[in-house]
Write a structure and sequence with these properties.
heterodimer, A: mainly alpha, MetI-like fold, 2 domains, 79% helix, globular, disordered N terminus, disordered C terminus, B: alpha+beta, Rossmann fold, five-stranded antiparallel β-sheet, 21 strands, 24% helix, 35% strand
Chain lengths: 538, 365
């Protein structure tokens, strides 16, 4: 489709190189997925059914469905309730609660899993996995729902009140339906993340599709069974992505035109009940933040032999792991932002069917579990470009594919802020195309690009699955070290790595806030819906 | 439909008095335009009527029932009011029909009670019932918002700058449709606006709010002709203020002698003349003559800038756009009386006149 448009040669498509570059990026993005699907298409259907029609697969499917459904539901309820209380009621220390509700997102799931599993042997299996995932993922519901609550026009509620609705009926007949897209969108994001979760499940000994794919891949180096299981996982993911698209489309019809200044929505007085809410928030933060982090602190003070497996931390190893984490993070961030530029530019400046199609490819890939992408890349590197296997570049490529959609949203909005009028103005003042890029576009978009880079850095440093599968032999990162030590029950040894990783994660989150201003996360959360809204209004 | 009565109403935000000892009365079934510049407290007043804000002192009663006073605050949902906010605020997740019946009991909602009738009342086709609000123009959204407010047969309809977001062409049509619908429903209505021409054309009554106080409440024509202060005159439309001398029901100014509109003032006064009160004719002896020194042409009418032959005064006159006047042309001026006068409030404020000149002119004639 893209080439067809290119060949029509209309003035709109003069920047053919841009489309070519964006298309190339899309191809890279989709390559692991295409390989997996191609591989599955090659195999014998009977064999395929044999592999999948096993009691083991049935129990995996049940486990996966159970954890996905219960995490999603719990996150939905928790996210909605905490968002409503923190946005719509008058509480003491009002600014603190949103912060505490979002902060658990910065703690990688394998770190909190490590904390819980090292606390007691009983904290394993389904309940522990549910606890860890709900803590980590409820911000995915909290953020869009509280942004939606803040974005609701207070005039709507006031009008409903004058039409005879009390506060409760107002909530159920007006506010809840308005929050539906944000709530469902957030819950689907939780479902997708749970489906892709790997590290927490392994550490907490809960078997799902992802852990089994990894096990089969590791056990035999036979990617056959792993690939077939991947297809099953992929189908489940495809179902969720399809649902998410539907919600997104629906959300566009809820959009209202932007208005000028708006009154802040009213907050409810709870009286003495507010202390109950505060207690609830505090209790929640204890479970999601305080306990995991203090367990980490506890192990830091312990000698290696206090843990089940006594392992001492080597300073050299600690330094090497930190160094390679940071190095991979920086290189990966640079590569990802570079690859996101043509796509982001295309989306910002030449919106249309081609751009929308490419955006869909990117978001499709984002929904695919990391382990499937990593396996696909392994196959690509073995079958198509043998030199790539076990190279650092392959790992960087995996990061770029995994986190490009994340970067793209940021790059796109940064370029949208650098208005195209200014670009045209620069051209009218005699600047050439590349000079405009250098002197107008990039300086104006710099904070947004920086934000995209730090977001990708943050994601890479805390990434585990692809790193485990693709890192060159001998390369250990903080994440893989924590994983290895925790798997070996060497809890004290894992602590320093976990500490450094947590600090790194917080520093880059702080950098992200700095670059995007105070409401960085809100903007990221809102971006998804505005994209859909704008296309609907054309 | 019920009467609306406000007595001694006060409201402060922090130290700032937003509403200050306000009294206002509106008979059942009539329409009041609440006019004021931004920051005059008109929106606050409307929000207090709705029950979104509490009052500090005084009282509001609707249909004889007190809904607000210190210690009493009926919540918005129990006031039987219809509220039309700026830009309509239609519920984006509901169709037009569901928006209209939103405030009705469930059984009436199911049968889409009076939807067709209300749509017709606000001048929209019946098949709009199934449209989504996003697919309506701003003016249409505003009409649906009114239909929604009227559906539950409220005691009072309150409209908060309902036309300010519309562009001028749409604004007139929407305004007419809304006013007709309000009349058809026999509604008691309060419409807040900062646009004086909108206020004058909408209300059977116009109340002017200024820094939280009610300056004047009157019919539109009375308000425009006989504003209580020169500032109010200027706020309501273009005005020429000339110095004059009042004696026994007549006033003398640079444009001649005229009967005064019911005023017992004597001595030095300020005379209000609206540009459209000035009639132009061919110059003749014994007339006040002036030279055209500038013109603003609008098509349907034009504003001429005239320099009086006697004295150095420059005044404005509104004429039909049909007659062409030339720059430098000499014309004769006559004024349609009677004139409104204000007590003289000291020098330096009038737009065209000084007392000395007036006395000079008077002694000449």
């Amino acid at each position: 489709m893209a080439f067809y448009s290119l060949k029509t040669g209309r003035a709109r498509y003069r920047q053919g190189w841009l489309f070519a570059a964006a298309l190339a990026v899309c191809l890279v993005l989709a390559s692991p997925l295409l390989v997996i699907v191609w591989q599955a298409a090659q195999s014998d259907p009977a064999d395929f059914i044999d592999t999948l029609w096993r009691p083991l697969v049935a129990s995996l499917a049940l486990n996966t469905a159970l954890i996905v459904a219960s995490t999603t539901l719990l996150c939905g309820v928790l996210g909605l309730v905490s968002a409503w209380f923190s946005e719509r009621t008058r509480l003491p220390w009002q600014g603190l609660w949103p912060l505490l509700s979002v902060a658990p997102m910065a703690v990688p799931t394998f770190i909190s899993s490590y904390a819980w599993v090292s606390l007691s042997d009983d904290l394993q299996g389904f309940p522990a996995a549910l606890l860890v995932l709900v803590s980590a993922y409820s911000p995915l519901v909290f953020l869009p729902v509280s942004a939606a609550l803040r974005g609701l026009d207070p005039a709507l509620e006031e009008t409903a009140r004058t039409l005879g609705l009390g506060p409760w009926r107002c909530f159920f007949r007006l506010i809840l339906p308005q929050l539906r897209p944000a709530l469902l969108g957030g819950m689907l994001l939780v479902a997708l993340s749970t489906l892709s979760e790997f590290g927490a499940f392994v550490l907490l000994r809960f078997r799902t599709f992802t852990t089994e794919i990894f096990a089969e891949y590791r056990a035999g180096f036979d990617s056959h069974g792993a690939a077939q299981l991947s297809i099953a996982l992929l189908l489940a993911a495809a179902l969720l992505i399809g649902l998410e698209w539907r919600v997104r489309r629906q959300a566009s019809s809820y959009e209202r035109r932007a208005r000028g200044t708006r009154r802040a929505p009213p907050r409810l007085e709870l009286g003495a009940g507010k202390w109950l809410v505060v207690a609830g928030f505090l209790l929640l933060s204890c479970v999601t933040l305080l306990l995991p982090l203090s367990t980490l602190g506890y192990w830091l003070t312990q000698h290696g032999d206090a843990a089940v497996s006594p392992v001492e931390v080597s300073a050299q190893l600690l330094f090497d792991a930190s160094f390679s984490s940071i190095e991979l993070g920086l290189e990966g961030a640079a590569l990802t932002v570079l690859l996101a530029l043509p796509l982001g530019y295309l989306l910002a400046r030449r919106p249309g069917r081609v751009a929308a199609f490419m955006e869909r490819v990117a978001f499709l890939v984002q929904g695919v579990p990391g382990i499937v992408i990593a396996l696909g890349l392994v196959t690509v590197s073995i079958r198509v470009i043998p030199g790539l296997y076990q190279s650092q570049f392959l790992l960087l490529l995996a990061y770029a594919i995994l986190f490009l959609p994340l970067a793209m949203v940021s790059v796109r909005s940064a370029l949208l802020q650098a208005e195209s009028r200014l670009e045209e103005l620069a051209r009218s003042l005699g600047l050439k195309g590349w000079q405009t890029w250098l002197r107008v576009l990039l300086p104006m978009a710099a904070p947004g690009l920086g934000a995209a880079a730090s977001l990708v850095f943050l994601s890479i440093v805390t990434e585990l699955t692809a790193t485990l599968l693709l890192s060159p032999i001998g390369t250990e990162t903080l994440a893989t070290q924590i994983w290895a030590d925790t798997s070996a029950m060497a809890f004290a040894a894992a602590a320093p790595y976990a500490l450094i990783l947590t600090v790194l994660s917080m520093v880059s989150t702080w950098l992200l806030m700095l670059l995007l201003g105070g409401n960085a996360i809100n903007r990221l959360a809102a971006d998804g819906t505005t994209v859909a809204g704008e296309t609907a209004h054309v | 439909m019920s009467e609306l009565s406000i007595q001694g109403l006060c409201k402060r935000f922090a130290q700032h008095r937003v509403i200050d000892q306000l009294d206002l009365h509106l008979t059942a079934g009539s329409t009041l335009a609440l006019l004021g510049p931004s920051g005059s407290g008109k929106t606050t007043l409307l929000r207090m009527l709705c029950g979104f804000e509490h009052c500090d002192a005084g009282s509001i009663s609707i249909g004889g029932t007190i809904v607000s006073s210190p210690g009493i605050h009926l919540p918005p949902e129990r006031r039987r009011i219809g509220y039309v906010p700026q830009e309509g605020a239609l519920f984006p997740h509901l169709k037009v029909a569901d928006n209209i019946v939103f405030g009705l009991p469930r059984s009436l909602r199911k049968q889409r009670h009076r939807v067709a009738e209300l749509l017709e009342m606000v001048g929209l086709p019946a098949d709009y019932a199934d449209r989504a609000p996003q697919h309506l123009s701003g003016g249409q959204q505003q009409r649906v918002a009114l239909a929604r407010a009227l559906a539950a047969e409220p005691a009072v309809v309150l409209l908060d700058e309902p036309f300010s977001a519309l562009d001028s062409g749409l604004r007139n049509d929407t305004r007419q449709a809304v006013m007709q619908a309000l009349q058809a429903a026999g509604a008691t209505a309060v419409l807040v606006t900062h646009d004086q021409s909108e206020a004058l054309s909408c209300g059977e009554q116009v109340a002017v709010l200024w820094q939280g106080r009610l300056l004047q409440q009157d019919s539109p024509a009375n308000l425009y002709r006989h504003p209580r202060t020169p500032e109010l005159a200027g706020f309501l439309g273009e005005s020429i203020l000339l110095a004059g001398v009042a004696t026994a029901g007549r006033v003398e100014c640079v444009l001649g002698g005229f009967p005064m509109a019911d005023s017992k003032l004597q001595g030095a006064v300020e005379v209000l003349i609206r540009p459209e009160q000035i009639r132009l004719g061919p110059p003749a002896p014994d007339t006040v003559q002036a030279t055209v020194i500038g013109m603003e042409y609008f098509g349907h009418d034009a504003t001429l800038h005239l320099q009086l032959r006697q004295g150095q005064h420059i005044i404005k006159a509104r004429t039909s756009g049909w007659h062409a006047y030339q720059h430098g042309q000499t014309v004769a001026l006559a004024v349609d009386g009677p004139l409104t006068v204000f007590a003289q409030q000291g020098p330096g404020r009038s737009t065209a006149e000084t007392p000395d000149n007036a006395r000079f002119l008077l002694s000449q004639s």
